[in-house]
């Protein structure tokens, strides 16, 4: 009997026009589904629901390996810099008052630190002989130019960097393209860090002078400390970045470059991370303030001020402007690089990208926070795609509301002054709108960076053309504020990042 019923149904289907929007089963039974009645015990398939969130997490073929940068070598280089820049000068200052000895040591310090940078690059890459040759070329050419062209600052600064970098590249690379890339990157790094070597850091001292006076007179100690930190950044950053550059070029990684790509293949240990936090965060702070001072000095040069013997050529002034642009680009790069290694460190330690990460990027507060973090963070044995995706989604709406409220409060405070003009009101409104846009749109970062850059260029052009721009038009912390947008970006837009997991230590879905 059941067989006859099935035959009848099949024969009816031949003559009935099927409605595919209705569904196959409903068409066969001549019924309509009731979607209002849902099983109370129904559970969604979590794997299918998470698919759209885990498409930003992928597995990399290369297995996780040892650290690329030796923390021990970086630590030894910092120790050597402190000895050469602080310990020996302190001994000389107490033992002799001869100006000639102090002047001679100034040159010796430059020679010793420059050669040490190349020496440690050679030790890290196991190319010691080639690195020593490059360091020797740098110092010999610098010495020759001091005596042959003492007034040609342009040649004296570019030629040693160019020749030493090219020499090392040609010796260690068999591929000419890689040699050219390494040379250009080395020139970019050394020139961008140039302002750290000669600045007096007056802006930093002006910002904190009243604080030091209210406690006790330690301004000299403060200047000396800042000077040592500048020396550490000046010589340690090239060591780290050039070592990484060589490693990347030798591996010939053809993966498409992305600013928001995070790899967990080479996540740092806690000790190395402590060292990198100190080096990179200090460098970002110093370069941010020094860049503003360098721009102010450049404006004074363009205005006719001359604190160097003789007239300054237009070529030299253009070179200083070019260096300022390089330093600004390099500052943004440092922010991006530091953000990515920090983000990878948090994800590898199974920490949400939220409040803790946000405060770890703030000055002063982050010192205590990083001490706590590095003592309690524990590396995950395995990585799970779903878990990594959830960590990147950990945006706190409370934090967003607080930032918007603080920005709004900052906008209203100047308006309480009866002497405020319409331009100030307009600037506050724009500032608030940009913050809200940055927090709610993943492309807001690039819009804000572009507008901030245009504003700075506009103020510089107005100053050059004779307009008296108030000094408080640009805050002393303007460049650090710009970089901080890059640093805290993952807190609000974690979905903009893609994360590569090593297959060997990853759990399948």
Automatic annotation (TrEMBL):
The keyword Transcription does not apply. This is Uncharacterized protein. The chain crosses the membrane at residues 73-92, 104-121, 128-147, 153-173, 180-201, 221-246, 273-296, 316-337, 357-377, 397-416, 423-439, 445-462, 474-492. It comes from the Bacteria. Keywords: Membrane, Transmembrane, Transmembrane helix. The keyword Isomerase does not apply.
């Amino acid at each position: 009997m059941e067989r006859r019923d099935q035959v009848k149904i099949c024969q009816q289907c031949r003559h009935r026009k099927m409605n595919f929007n209705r569904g196959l089963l409903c068409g066969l039974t001549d019924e309509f589904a009731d979607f209002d009645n849902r099983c109370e015990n129904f559970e969604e398939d979590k794997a299918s629901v998470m698919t759209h969130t885990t498409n930003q997490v992928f597995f990399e073929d290369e297995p996780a390996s040892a650290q690329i940068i030796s923390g021990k070598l970086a630590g030894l280089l910092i120790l050597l810099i402190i000895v050469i820049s602080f310990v020996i000068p302190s001994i000389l200052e107490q033992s002799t008052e001869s100006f000639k000895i102090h002047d001679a040591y100034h040159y010796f310090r430059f020679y010793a630190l420059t050669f040490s940078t190349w020496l440690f690059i050679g030790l890290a890459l196991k190319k010691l002989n080639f690195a020593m040759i490059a360091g020797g070329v740098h110092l010999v050419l610098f010495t020759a130019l001091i005596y042959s062209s003492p007034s040609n600052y342009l040649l004296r600064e570019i030629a040693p960097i160019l020749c030493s970098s090219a020499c090392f590249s040609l010796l260690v690379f068999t591929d000419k393209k890689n040699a050219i890339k390494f040379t250009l990157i080395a020139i970019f790094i050394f020139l961008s860090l140039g302002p750290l070597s000669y600045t007096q850091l007056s802006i930093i001292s002006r910002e904190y002078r009243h604080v030091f006076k209210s406690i006790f007179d330690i301004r000299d100690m403060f200047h000396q400390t800042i000077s040592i930190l500048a020396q550490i950044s000046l010589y340690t950053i090239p060591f780290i970045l050039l070592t990484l550059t060589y490693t990347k070029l030798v591996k010939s990684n053809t993966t498409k470059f992305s600013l928001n790509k995070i790899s967990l293949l080479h996540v740092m240990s806690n000790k190395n991370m402590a060292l990198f936090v100190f080096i990179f965060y200090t460098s970002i702070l110093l370069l941010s303030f020094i860049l503003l001072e360098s721009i102010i000095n450049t404006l004074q040069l363009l205005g006719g001020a001359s604190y160097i013997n003789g007239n300054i050529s237009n070529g030299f002034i253009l070179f200083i402007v070019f260096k300022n642009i390089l330093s600004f680009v390099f500052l943004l790069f440092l922010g991006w690089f530091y953000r990515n290694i920090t983000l990878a460190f948090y994800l590898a330690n199974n920490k949400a990208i939220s409040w803790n990460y946000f405060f770890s990027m703030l000055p002063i507060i982050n010192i205590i926070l990083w001490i706590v973090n590095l003592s309690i963070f524990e590396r995950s044995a395995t990585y799970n795609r779903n878990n990594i995706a959830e960590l990147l989604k950990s945006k706190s709406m409370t934090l967003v509301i607080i930032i918007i409220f603080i920005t709004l409060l900052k906008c209203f405070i100047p308006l309480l002054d009866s002497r405020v003009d319409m331009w100030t009101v307009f600037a506050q409104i724009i500032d608030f709108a940009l913050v809200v846009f940055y927090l709610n749109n993943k492309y807001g970062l690039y819009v804000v960076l572009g507008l901030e850059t245009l504003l700075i260029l506009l103020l510089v052009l107005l100053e050059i053309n004779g307009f008296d721009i108030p000094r408080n038009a640009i805050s002393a912390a303007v460049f650090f504020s710009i970089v901080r947008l890059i640093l805290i970006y993952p807190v609000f837009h974690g979905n903009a990042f893609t994360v590569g997991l090593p297959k060997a230590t990853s759990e399948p879905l």
